[in-house]
Write a structure and sequence with these properties.
It is built from 2 helices and 21 strands. The strands form 3 sheets. It has a 13-stranded antiparallel beta sheet, with no helix packed on it. It has a 4-stranded mixed beta sheet with strand order 5-6-10-9. A hairpin with a 2-residue loop joins strand 12 and strand 13. The two termini are 26 Å apart.
């Protein structure tokens, strides 16, 4: 069919000018910056004689403040504005048959999303580590969403579109503790209220959304020095169910571990990684995506590979001190 064939080409031109100024006023340290950006985007489709242009001119200010009020305590605050641009996959409107139940396509007129972030927090250093706590507010203009509508019978059309706005209000805390020279433990937690609202335009059909809920996450990372150039690292990341424009993404768990042996003063290393530890019962590296509308309801449990073992051999021409980087997954970071 002709609607499933064609080419799409997107071109981006970005010109920017950035300035930054920092200083100290009594005990208050500050850094302020301003970025001006002119961005031009064009999407050319073989099936459409009209070219899809987007020209935008924006200012992106930022400011960070730090105020020490005791020897080991300081207050911090800041504001920044940033942009998240659309990728080619999100801009490609040519339908793609993902599987028997789903068509997927993008929108060549999709808008980038703009994020305003304000935060205020406290830092504390102690003998064996450090602690931080941060209150934050985030406002997102044109949040990019993947939504569904009915294509035919039991087949859904999955599309990218913009909602009007989203906002987060939350508290993040974390602590790093050193237990002697052999063990370092990091623990972090995040609790926030997420709300997405406004109007959705899905292939010319508009609807009003207003979905919100509390979301929490935590992560743990330990690094153990076993002696004789052996080290062991373990991490686990968990995020609870969270609302979307048309439903909910379920909780997501990602535990990993790595055992590393170094040779030749760190220039040569051999490591064994165990990714997405599941053991048959932890339901790791999987997520259920549920969406619904006036004429459909769908829920799909996406299960990716678990209990994956990787053996890595690494040789460094120039020694760089760094920890083994354990894997992350797109499942926990992005909506399917």
């Amino acid at each position: 069919m002709s609607k499933f064939r064609g080419t799409a080409k997107s071109t981006n031109h970005i010109n920017a000018l950035y300035s930054q100024y920092g200083g100290k006023l009594s005990e208050l340290q500050y850094v302020a910056g301003l970025r001006y950006e002119y961005a031009s985007r064009e999407v050319i489709l073989s099936s459409d004689t009209n070219h899809h242009h987007l020209d935008q001119s924006n200012l992106f200010p930022s400011i960070n403040l730090l105020f020490p009020f005791k020897e080991t305590w300081n207050l911090k605050g800041g504001y920044s504005k940033r942009v998240q641009r659309n990728n080619n996959f999100e801009l490609n409107p040519i339908p793609e048959r993902e599987h028997s139940e789903t068509l997927e396509q993008g929108d060549p007129d999709l808008l980038p999303q703009y994020v305003d972030l304000a935060e205020f927090g406290i830092n504390h250093d102690f003998n064996k580590g450090s602690f931080f706590s941060t209150l934050y507010f985030q406002h997102i203009k044109n949040p990019i969403q993947r939504v569904n509508n009915v294509y035919a019978d039991s087949i859904l059309n999955r599309l990218f579109t913009n909602a009007s706005s989203a906002r987060l209000i939350g508290l993040e805390m974390g602590s790093t503790t050193n237990f002697g020279r052999w063990l370092t433990l990091y623990m972090g937690a995040n609790l926030y209220n997420y709300k997405i609202s406004g109007r959705l335009n899905v292939l010319g059909e508009t609807s009003t959304i207003n979905n919100s809920n509390w979301v929490y996450s935590f992560n743990v990372n330990t690094t153990t020095d076993l002696g004789k150039e052996w080290s062991w690292q373990v991490n686990a990341n968990y995020v609870s169910a969270r609302p979307t424009a048309q439903g909910e993404d379920s909780r997501f768990l990602s535990p990993n571990t790595s055992l590393k042996k170094s040779f030749l003063e760190g220039k040569l290393s051999l490591s064994l990684q165990w990714q997405n530890i599941n053991l048959g019962f932890m339901n790791a590296n999987q997520q259920r995506i549920t969406t619904y509308g006036t004429d459909f309801y769908t829920t799909t449990n996406y299960i990716y590979e678990t209990d994956v073992f990787l053996l890595n051999f690494n040789f460094k021409l120039n020694k760089i001190n760094s920890k083994t980087k354990l894997p992350t997954s797109e499942i926990g970071e992005k909506e399917f």
